[in-house]
Fold this sequence. Notes:
The complex is a heterodimer. Chain A is an all-alpha fold. Chain A has helices at residues 3-12, 16-29, 34-50, 58-76, 80-92, 101-114, 134-148, 151-158, 161-180. Chain A is globular. The mean pLDDT of chain A is 95. Chain B has one domain. Chain B is 41% helix and 30% strand. Chain B has helices at 6-19, 21-26, 33-39, 42-53; strands at 61-70, 73-82, 85-92. In chain B, strand 2 and strand 3 form a beta hairpin. Chain B is globular and about 30 Å long. Chain A binds chain B through residues 49-50, 55, 58, 62, 91-93, 95, 101, 127-132, 169-170, 173-174, and chain B through 14-15, 17-19, 21-23, 25-27, 42-43, 62, 64-65, 78-80, 82, 87, 89-90. Chain A: This is Tetratricopeptide repeat protein.
Amino acid sequence: MDWKEQLSKLEQSKDWKSAIALIQETINQNSSSIDAYLSMNYLLMNLLVEEQYDPNGHDYYAGLLKKYFIESYAKFSNNPEYLFYIGQIACISEWYFDIEIEEAQSMMKKASELEPGSILYKWANYSGLDMRESSNKEKMIVYAKQTLSEPEVKRELKSKGALGKYLWDSLEYWSKEEITK
Amino acid sequence: MTQFSSSTIDDAVAYAMKNKVTHVFGKAAHNLDPLVTKLGGQENTFRAVLNAANGKLPVSGVFNNVSVNVGGYNVIIRGSVVNGVPKIGTMFIP
């Protein structure tokens, strides 16, 4: 079983400490693994924002997240894959990265500029739209439907584990909005 | 007692409607659909929750698991007060 399969099992059982230890070990063995760094950033962001944990652990987890963000950004800030995903993670709660939301959006925009052929990275064009405007919602719905219909996107997001599922679910949410609104 | 002016709440709603709609309302586990339906939309929901939290949030920095009652629902919010503006990171009905 590779580290991604192990991680998936630990995430499903919400064994966060073991999951963090597993990714730390993976990074120690391969410090150039973008996937390992993205997994760590997403796991910690999701833990802090979405999961139940001992409140006494908040500052520790927040510090660890910032450490891995700074460390990974220093290594991969010119890599479009990294920039797209880290921008998405940052947008969940950008204050944990000590950045403004516009900086998170800029990361995604840079990814799209570096790899203009990627439909997934074009998500940057729809980040930060004011969803009080129905025309903006329509744009996002159309984009989500187009993106979900690309087999390559499904493969790409599946390879990203929980982070990929989060983004896939987000696209599905928008693709269904037209029906419900 | 309130801590944020109506104009600051407007800023917080605008921020949320630009940046947090997907995360907050896109996760089925947040159980927010009944509240959104009851209040007539996402913007109204953000505004009602922020108004209910007005006076319960820190002056600055992260807040976690702040509980507010909106439309008969108990809503838990997490986020941060940044430059005097309350920013919602997530909210859910447990």
